[in-house]
Write a structure and sequence with these properties.
The radius of gyration is 12 Å and the shape is globular. It contains five helices and four strands. The protein starts with a helix and ends with a helix. It has a single domain, classed as Oxidized Rhodanese, domain 1 (3-Layer(aba) Sandwich). The chain has a four-stranded parallel sheet with strand order 2-1-3-4. It is α/β, with parallel strands linked by helices and 95 residues long.
């Protein structure tokens, strides 16, 4: 996971925020793309074109777990559950 975090810090991958648009507008990690969980399946072709690795996050890790699972089921590799926004921010800021 360390190399995945490094890729994200170097802006070589994609941060995918699967919270609602309202949650995203209130707070998000700079550079993240917002695709709410309920639209993930309809957005799989767009997600497939995103730079890898893709790190998916939400508020606590529940929605990102579901979303990363759906994305992996579609055949995409290099998709990781980044968990909750605050934990992921701590990881990005401290590594």
């Amino acid at each position: 996971m360390q190399n995945v975090i490094q890729s994200i810090k170097e802006k070589k991958g994609t941060l995918l925020d699967v919270r609602s648009e309202m949650e995203f507008e209130t707070e998000h990690i700079p550079g993240a793309i917002n695709i709410p969980l309920e639209t993930i399946e309809a957005s799989l072709s767009k997600i497939a074109e995103m730079p890898k690795p893709i790190v998916v996050y939400c508020l606590s890790g529940g929605r990102s777990g579901i979303a990363s699972g759906l994305i992996k089921q579609s055949g995409l590799q290099e998709v990781y559950n980044g968990g909750g926004i605050h934990n992921l921010l701590n990881i990005l800021n401290n590594n």
